[in-house]
Specification:
The protein is 67% helix and 4% strand. By secondary structure, the chain is mostly helical. Strands 1-2 form a two-stranded antiparallel sheet.
Protein backbone atom coordinates (compact mmCIF):
# COMPACT_ATOMS: atom_id res chain seq x y z
CA UNK A 1 0.00 0.00 0.00
CA UNK A 2 1.12 3.57 -0.71
CA UNK A 3 2.37 5.14 2.51
CA UNK A 4 1.26 8.54 1.18
CA UNK A 5 -2.41 7.56 1.44
CA UNK A 6 -4.46 9.35 4.07
CA UNK A 7 -4.77 7.44 7.37
CA UNK A 8 -8.54 7.11 6.90
CA UNK A 9 -7.98 5.48 3.49
CA UNK A 10 -5.59 2.96 5.04
CA UNK A 11 -8.18 2.10 7.69
CA UNK A 12 -10.83 1.64 4.98
CA UNK A 13 -8.52 -0.62 2.96
CA UNK A 14 -7.58 -2.71 5.99
CA UNK A 15 -11.25 -2.99 6.98
CA UNK A 16 -12.24 -4.08 3.48
CA UNK A 17 -9.40 -6.59 3.19
CA UNK A 18 -10.10 -8.18 6.58
CA UNK A 19 -13.86 -8.14 6.06
CA UNK A 20 -13.56 -9.93 2.72
CA UNK A 21 -11.18 -12.47 4.22
CA UNK A 22 -13.72 -13.26 6.95
CA UNK A 23 -16.60 -13.49 4.47
CA UNK A 24 -14.79 -15.79 2.03
CA UNK A 25 -13.39 -18.02 4.77
CA UNK A 26 -9.70 -17.23 4.51
CA UNK A 27 -10.09 -16.06 8.10
CA UNK A 28 -12.22 -18.62 9.89
CA UNK A 29 -14.27 -18.46 13.09
CA UNK A 30 -11.90 -18.65 16.06
CA UNK A 31 -8.82 -17.53 14.14
CA UNK A 32 -6.59 -15.22 16.18
CA UNK A 33 -5.88 -11.83 14.64
CA UNK A 34 -2.55 -10.27 15.57
CA UNK A 35 -2.20 -6.67 14.50
CA UNK A 36 1.58 -6.90 14.12
CA UNK A 37 1.31 -9.81 11.68
CA UNK A 38 -1.61 -8.28 9.79
CA UNK A 39 0.15 -4.93 9.46
CA UNK A 40 3.29 -6.59 8.13
CA UNK A 41 1.28 -8.61 5.63
CA UNK A 42 -0.54 -5.48 4.40
CA UNK A 43 2.53 -3.30 4.40
CA UNK A 44 1.07 -0.67 6.71
CA UNK A 45 1.46 0.39 10.32
CA UNK A 46 -0.43 -1.23 13.20
CA UNK A 47 -2.65 1.82 13.83
CA UNK A 48 -4.98 1.47 10.81
CA UNK A 49 -5.16 -2.29 11.39
CA UNK A 50 -6.24 -1.72 14.99
CA UNK A 51 -8.88 0.76 13.89
CA UNK A 52 -10.12 -1.66 11.24
CA UNK A 53 -10.39 -4.42 13.85
CA UNK A 54 -12.40 -2.09 16.09
CA UNK A 55 -14.81 -1.44 13.24
CA UNK A 56 -15.16 -5.17 12.62
CA UNK A 57 -15.77 -5.71 16.32
CA UNK A 58 -18.58 -3.14 16.19
CA UNK A 59 -20.48 -5.35 13.71
CA UNK A 60 -19.65 -8.55 15.62
CA UNK A 61 -17.31 -10.10 13.09
CA UNK A 62 -14.39 -9.79 15.48
CA UNK A 63 -14.19 -10.27 19.23
CA UNK A 64 -11.63 -8.23 21.15
CA UNK A 65 -10.65 -9.12 24.71
CA UNK A 66 -8.11 -6.48 25.81
CA UNK A 67 -4.67 -7.87 26.64
CA UNK A 68 -5.87 -11.39 25.87
CA UNK A 69 -6.92 -11.99 22.26
CA UNK A 70 -8.56 -10.68 19.13
CA UNK A 71 -10.29 -13.34 17.07
CA UNK A 72 -12.89 -13.94 14.39
CA UNK A 73 -16.30 -14.57 15.94
CA UNK A 74 -18.40 -17.68 15.47
CA UNK A 75 -21.97 -16.69 14.56
CA UNK A 76 -24.66 -18.30 16.70
CA UNK A 77 -27.66 -20.09 15.24
CA UNK A 78 -29.88 -17.20 16.34
CA UNK A 79 -27.61 -14.62 14.72
CA UNK A 80 -27.78 -16.51 11.43
CA UNK A 81 -31.56 -16.97 11.64
CA UNK A 82 -32.06 -13.32 12.54
CA UNK A 83 -29.86 -12.26 9.64
CA UNK A 84 -31.96 -14.24 7.17
CA UNK A 85 -35.12 -12.54 8.45
CA UNK A 86 -33.38 -9.18 8.25
CA UNK A 87 -32.10 -9.72 4.71
CA UNK A 88 -35.46 -10.91 3.38
CA UNK A 89 -37.36 -7.96 4.85
CA UNK A 90 -34.63 -5.50 3.88
CA UNK A 91 -34.71 -6.60 0.25
CA UNK A 92 -38.53 -6.45 0.18
CA UNK A 93 -38.53 -2.94 1.65
CA UNK A 94 -35.73 -1.75 -0.63
CA UNK A 95 -37.50 -3.01 -3.74
CA UNK A 96 -40.70 -1.33 -2.58
CA UNK A 97 -38.88 1.98 -2.22
CA UNK A 98 -36.64 1.70 -5.27
CA UNK A 99 -38.91 0.44 -8.04
CA UNK A 100 -40.81 3.72 -8.60
CA UNK A 101 -37.47 5.56 -8.79
CA UNK A 102 -35.70 3.15 -11.14
CA UNK A 103 -34.64 4.08 -14.65
CA UNK A 104 -35.37 1.61 -17.41
CA UNK A 105 -31.74 0.50 -17.16
CA UNK A 106 -32.11 -0.04 -13.40
CA UNK A 107 -35.18 -2.19 -13.98
CA UNK A 108 -33.44 -4.28 -16.62
CA UNK A 109 -30.48 -4.84 -14.31
CA UNK A 110 -32.80 -5.71 -11.42
CA UNK A 111 -34.55 -8.34 -13.55
CA UNK A 112 -31.18 -9.75 -14.60
CA UNK A 113 -29.95 -9.91 -11.00
CA UNK A 114 -33.15 -11.58 -9.87
CA UNK A 115 -32.54 -14.12 -12.63
CA UNK A 116 -29.26 -14.94 -10.86
CA UNK A 117 -31.20 -15.44 -7.61
CA UNK A 118 -33.67 -17.78 -9.31
CA UNK A 119 -30.87 -19.72 -11.01
CA UNK A 120 -29.06 -20.24 -7.71
CA UNK A 121 -32.30 -21.44 -6.12
CA UNK A 122 -32.91 -23.95 -8.92
CA UNK A 123 -29.35 -25.21 -8.54
CA UNK A 124 -29.75 -25.32 -4.73
CA UNK A 125 -26.47 -23.45 -4.36
CA UNK A 126 -26.53 -21.46 -1.14
CA UNK A 127 -23.20 -19.64 -1.79
CA UNK A 128 -24.49 -18.48 -5.18
CA UNK A 129 -27.85 -17.57 -3.62
CA UNK A 130 -26.20 -15.41 -0.97
CA UNK A 131 -24.05 -13.63 -3.56
CA UNK A 132 -27.00 -13.07 -5.88
CA UNK A 133 -29.32 -11.94 -3.09
CA UNK A 134 -26.77 -9.45 -1.80
CA UNK A 135 -26.14 -8.14 -5.33
CA UNK A 136 -29.89 -7.61 -5.71
CA UNK A 137 -30.01 -5.72 -2.41
CA UNK A 138 -27.02 -3.57 -3.34
CA UNK A 139 -28.50 -2.75 -6.75
CA UNK A 140 -31.88 -1.62 -5.45
CA UNK A 141 -30.24 0.25 -2.57
CA UNK A 142 -28.29 2.31 -5.10
CA UNK A 143 -31.41 2.79 -7.24
CA UNK A 144 -33.45 3.93 -4.22
CA UNK A 145 -31.00 6.82 -3.73
CA UNK A 146 -31.78 6.86 -0.02
CA UNK A 147 -28.97 8.03 2.26
CA UNK A 148 -30.08 5.90 5.22
CA UNK A 149 -30.36 2.70 3.17
CA UNK A 150 -27.01 3.36 1.54
CA UNK A 151 -25.22 3.97 4.81
CA UNK A 152 -26.87 0.95 6.44
CA UNK A 153 -25.68 -1.31 3.63
CA UNK A 154 -22.17 0.15 3.81
CA UNK A 155 -21.94 -0.44 7.56
CA UNK A 156 -23.43 -3.96 7.56
CA UNK A 157 -22.20 -5.50 4.28
CA UNK A 158 -19.64 -7.90 5.71
CA UNK A 159 -21.72 -9.21 8.60
CA UNK A 160 -24.75 -9.62 6.33
CA UNK A 161 -22.77 -11.64 3.81
CA UNK A 162 -21.00 -13.76 6.45
CA UNK A 163 -24.10 -14.53 8.52
CA UNK A 164 -26.22 -15.43 5.49
CA UNK A 165 -24.22 -18.62 4.92
CA UNK A 166 -26.64 -21.45 4.23
CA UNK A 167 -29.44 -19.07 3.16
CA UNK A 168 -31.90 -20.27 0.53
CA UNK A 169 -35.48 -19.55 -0.49
CA UNK A 170 -38.16 -21.54 1.31
CA UNK A 171 -39.93 -22.84 -1.81
CA UNK A 172 -40.09 -26.56 -2.33
CA UNK A 173 -40.35 -28.26 -5.69
CA UNK A 174 -41.00 -26.31 -8.88
CA UNK A 175 -40.85 -22.58 -8.12
CA UNK A 176 -40.55 -21.47 -11.75
CA UNK A 177 -44.00 -19.85 -11.75
CA UNK A 178 -43.17 -17.88 -8.60
CA UNK A 179 -39.82 -16.80 -10.02
CA UNK A 180 -41.46 -15.73 -13.28
CA UNK A 181 -44.12 -13.77 -11.40
CA UNK A 182 -41.57 -11.89 -9.33
CA UNK A 183 -39.44 -11.11 -12.37
CA UNK A 184 -42.53 -9.70 -14.10
CA UNK A 185 -43.49 -7.67 -11.01
CA UNK A 186 -40.04 -6.06 -10.95
CA UNK A 187 -40.26 -5.35 -14.67
CA UNK A 188 -43.70 -3.73 -14.15
CA UNK A 189 -42.49 -1.67 -11.16
CA UNK A 190 -45.26 -3.30 -9.09
CA UNK A 191 -43.99 -2.47 -5.62
CA UNK A 192 -46.61 -4.26 -3.52
CA UNK A 193 -46.55 -7.45 -5.58
CA UNK A 194 -42.76 -7.56 -5.73
CA UNK A 195 -42.44 -7.27 -1.96
CA UNK A 196 -45.24 -9.80 -1.38
CA UNK A 197 -43.74 -12.37 -3.75
CA UNK A 198 -40.24 -11.94 -2.30
CA UNK A 199 -41.55 -12.52 1.23
CA UNK A 200 -43.57 -15.51 -0.02
CA UNK A 201 -40.44 -17.02 -1.57
CA UNK A 202 -38.88 -17.06 1.88
CA UNK A 203 -41.85 -18.27 3.90
CA UNK A 204 -42.44 -14.92 5.58
CA UNK A 205 -45.87 -14.09 4.17
Amino acid sequence: MDARRQPSALVDEAYAALGEAIVDGRLRPGDRLRDVELAAHMGISRTPVREALQRLAAIRLVEISPHRFTRVTTPTAQEMSDMRDYAVHMIAMTMHLALPRCSDEDIAEGVRLFGDVARAAREKSSPAYVDAGFALLAHFTRAADNIVLGETLKQTEFVVRRNLRGWMCAGEGDCDELFASLGAAIRDRDTARSAHLWLTMHGLY
